[in-house]
Amino acid sequence: MSDLSPQDAYNFAYLDEQTKRMIRRAILKGIAVPGCQVPFASREMPMPYGWGTGGVQVTAACLVPEDRLKVIDQGADDTTNAVSIRRFFQRTAGVATTGATGEATVIQTRHRIPETPLTEGQILVFQVPIPEPLRFLEPRETETRKMHELEEYGLMHVKLYEDVARHGQIATAYAYPVKVEGRYVMDPSPIPKFDNPKLSGSPAIQLFGAGREQRIYALPPWTGVVSLDFDDHPFETSKAPHDCDLCGAKDSYLDEVITDDQGGRMFVCSDTDYCAGRRARGMKGRLWAPEPEGAA
Amino acid sequence: MYVAVKGGERAIDNAHQWLAEERRGDPSVPELTIPQIREQMRLAVNRVMAEGSLYDPDLAALAIKQARGDLIEAVFLIRAYRTTLPRLAASRPVDTGAMVIDRRISATFKDLPGGQVLGPTFDYTHRLLDFALMAEGGAPAPGAPTTGASPTAHVPHVTGFLNRDGLIEAASPDDTPPPDLTRQPMELPAGRALRLQALARADEGFVLSMAYSTQRGYGRTHAFVGELRIGRVAVEVDIPELGFAVGIGEIELTECETVNQFRGSKTEPPQFTRGYGLVPGQSERKAIAMSLVDRALRWQELGEDFTGAPAQDEEFVLMHCDNIQATGFLEHIKLPHYVDFQAELELVRKLRAEAQAMQEAAE
């Protein structure tokens, strides 16, 4: 396959223009009705369903040759699936790529929102496994569509209330449901609830693509997004109560890394670009030591 | 000292290289050719064509070779390829009545016009390993006819005989252009045309199990195989410039029509009802299973009760029958989820700490 020049064999960014047009129409509709899930005729992509095909189709429909693309998975640019998707667009669209959040015009992400605040003109594309926030309360699509139409979200509040009754708090740590501009309840994709506040009032366009489930939804810039909660149990973000051991950041979402079999562990920024940027500016964490010569 | 988890790019390259070696296997054994797979693994090729929704035996054989014999992976390769192909035209509906028959059986009549033709079937073979095949090189004994007895005769459908007496529900012709689930998002409730389309490309194993469940009582439909036929049909395309249809080739199909007992319902009189299955290639297990599931899904139209059986549940069947969707989502849990897992870890730690504090306070 690598012998075949993809630029010749496939259209720019893989999808044909008719398909891109169909996807763009769904995106525009999604932007016009923030938080509303718009059905679209998702295509089989050359990567499996569940591996970001929705995000890839949205990205393909948004890309222009001048774009600079960043792809992250779990906040990192170098996780295998992020590498695979970035390569896909390098091959099929020939666009420039970057790891730097600030330099990217389009960012495709799985499970995180970058720590560096996004700016006007940027597009953040989320990969979404299950777009329906009510799915695990009501498995039938025919029912949940009706619930959205009627703005009937009582079931969700009952679920959250049951959490409080049972655990003393809302026991949802990621994919925490939000309400968009007081209308649609929306699944923010499986980002940790730490990232939820970044959804609201963002200057960037946020697009959500679910390939297997054939849905696209969107948050236009400066959209108000509220995480569901109760007056007496307000929404709280959460992260590991540590600083990053590499860059010392106190405000970033951390991954826990097991370092030995004696219970040793360290905490590092999940956003690799943010962490590397801080270290480049001389900030150091508890365990930071420059990598030895020759290490990859 | 923390060693960063880097090198994804190199790891992927190495994995692909290893995969290529594994695919080839022992280089001292001759490599499989596409014609070998196409001719000798024909039923696998058929399955890949059916579930891949692309009738091209050579490409299906290539996909099987590339996928190391993993048929779902091969179906995936075909699907991803097919979706990039332009739509040049829609063919006319194929006429299975004009099929050149290789096999045609009816379980409901002992004999019938057009005859019973067993064709190349495993049905009455004894499932004993044929060690002679291990020796290789042996050609089958000559003398067996390779095509049907009456290649030109029009073989009428069995259900047509019943229809003449009004004993079976009428299947009135319908020229509404069918929806295309590869070009439009699936919307529910789906009509029968869309259901059949989804079932035709559905996973054989899934459809088989659904059909089997109806036989065991979960949405029982009392099916007989009214007719099962396998053969080749001509594909014709209307050429607007010419004003008439032109044959562009032929494809092999398996068609199954079931005749189902039906005691009548609130809305329908007692009569036999139909289930329908049509699958590219010789895929008779799938065609029979499809016709059973089709019949089970028609409960509403025939005024039957919904008993809660999975095979009656359109949304359940249609949303879970596609093996490419299913395998992708199933296997995606191999991808890193450590951000979500971290969030869960924090939550569980917090809940445990609180539970412990409460317990201690109680003691």
Largest sheet of chain B: 4 strands, antiparallel
What percent of the residues of chain B sit in helical stretches (DSSP H or I)? 25-40%
Largest sheet of chain A: 7 strands, mixed
Query: How many domains of chain B, as an integer?
Result: 2
The arrangement of helices and strands of chain A along the chain is: HHEHEHEEEHHEEHEEEEEH
Instruction: Tell me the CATH topology of the largest domain in chain A.
Output: Rossmann fold
**Helix-strand makeup class of chain A:** alpha/beta
Main sheet: strand order of chain B: 1-2-3-4
Count of individual helical segments of chain B: 13
Question: Measured on Cα atoms, how large is the radius of gyration of chain B?
Answer: 26 Å
- The total of beta strands of chain A comes to 12
Shape of chain B: globular
The averaged pLDDT of chain B comes out at 89
Number of helices of chain A: 8
Unreliable sequence segments of chain A: none
Radius of gyration of chain A: 20 Å
Instruction: State the helical fraction of chain A.
Output: 25-40%
Beta strand count of chain B: 4
Quick check: average pLDDT of chain A? Answer: 92
List the defining traits of the structure above.
heterodimer; A: 296 residues; alpha/beta; Rossmann fold; 2 domains; three-stranded antiparallel β-sheet; B: 363 residues; alpha+beta; four-stranded antiparallel β-sheet; 4 strands; PhnJ (chain A)
Protein described:
- The complex is a heterodimer of chains A (296) and B (363).
- Chain A has 296 residues and is α/β, with parallel strands linked by helices.
- Chain A folds into two domains: 7-132 and 176-226, 3-Layer(aba) Sandwich (Rossmann fold), CATH 3.40.50.11310; 239-285, no CATH class.
- Chain A contains eight helices and twelve strands.
- Chain A has a seven-stranded mixed β-sheet. A three-stranded antiparallel β-sheet of chain A has the order 7-6-10.
- In chain A, a hairpin with a 4-residue loop joins β8 (205-210) and β9 (215-219).
- Chain A is globular and about 55 Å long.
- Chain A starts with 5 loop residues before the first helix and ends in a 16-residue tail after the last helix.
- With 363 residues, chain B is of the alpha+beta class.
- Chain B folds into two domains: 13-82, no CATH class; 96-119 and 146-171 and 182-326, no CATH class.
- In chain B, 40% of the residues lie in helices and 13% in strands.
- Chain B has helices at residues 8-24, 34-40, 42-52, 57-66, 71-82, 132-135, 158-164, 192-200, 204-215, 284-297, 314-320, 323-331, 338-362, and strands at 100-105, 223-239, 244-260, 273-280.
- Chain B has a four-stranded antiparallel β-sheet.
- In chain B, a hairpin with a 4-residue loop joins β2 (223-239) and β3.
- Chains A and B meet through α4 and β11 of A and α1, α5, α12 and α13 of B.
